Amino acid sequence: MFYPYGFLGSSGLLYLGIPLIIGLWAQFRVGSAFRKWSAVRASSNITGAECAREILRAAQINDVDVVETNDFLGDHYDPTKKTLCLSSKVYSTPSVAALGIAAHETGHAIQHAKAYAPLKARMAIVPMTMFASQLLPFVFIGGFFFHMTGLITLGIYCYLILAVFQLITLPVEFDASRRAKIILQQMGIVQPGAEVAGVNSVLNAAALTYVAAFVAALGNLLWLMSMRDRRS
User: What are phi and psi of 66, to 5 degrees?
Assistant: First the structure.
């Protein structure tokens, strides 16, 4: 979202500018790691979809579907539908990057099957997060353009919910990556050396995006709090 300097103020440049820089850096790291390791064929010669299905079978999870999605890096696990969605380059490619991402998303399915507490907490807060996100456009229009201070307070609560959601997301994502790194080696899907290093590079870069999302939500929260204090 674009904020002109006069609208932001000096606190806005701090609370919003730094998270923006971190976010751009994280996205660069992810894109760079994915491009590099998606060009490296894994010695196991299995695709991301085959990898996911093998891990699910080994974990005795038989009720999760692995499907292809056209969204670039739109890989995710949907616990409400028990569906593991892999982007085309991950689904059908036997690359080191594809195996790392597929194993990571399969890690979420394993978390779901084992009733991993942070995942359950994130699922529980999703409806509140969606509602808060839908309110934000009205908060900015009413709060800043029509000077309705009450809406700024509402925005603070919205970003508080989003910050909590992003905070809960961190252990969920870190644990999924940890599981992926272990499982891929235990099952011999990736080999020690360059392949393990490639998986680590891709997943560690992806982890930065979740940290950046939390920092961004926290920055917006602090900025709105400073704006409310300035107007009170």
Answer: -105, 115
Amino acid at 223: W
Q: Which two tokens stand for residue 104?
A: 């990571």
Residue 54 bears catalytic tag: no
**Number of domains composing the chain:** 1
Distance CA 202, CA 48 (A): 14
Spatial distance between the Cα atoms of 190 and 210, rounded to a whole number of angstroms: 25
Look at residues 27, 42, 179, 28 and name the one whose alpha carbon lies nearest to residue 97: 42
Residues 74 and 85: beta-carbon distance below 8 Å = yes
pLDDT in tens, 188-225: 999 999 999 999 999 999 999 999 999 999 998 998 88
Number of H helices, E strands in the chain: 7, 3
Is 16 within 8 Å of 225 (Cβ atoms)? no
3-state helix, strand, coil in the chain (%, to 5): 75, 5, 20
Handedness of CA 168, 169, 175, 176 (dihedral sign): positive
Q: Select which of 50, 54, 105, 195 is catalytic.
A: 105
Q: Are 171 and 118 in contact (CB under 8 A)?
A: yes
In this structure, how many other beta carbons lie within 10 angstroms of the beta carbon of residue 129? 18
Are 58 and 77 in contact, with CB atoms under 8 Å apart? no
Domain that holds residue 123: 5-231
33 by DSSP, 3-state: which? helix
Whole-structure pTM over 0.70, yes or no?
yes
Residue 200 CA to residue 100 CA, distance in Å, equals 8
CA dist., res. 144 & res. 61, Å (int): 50
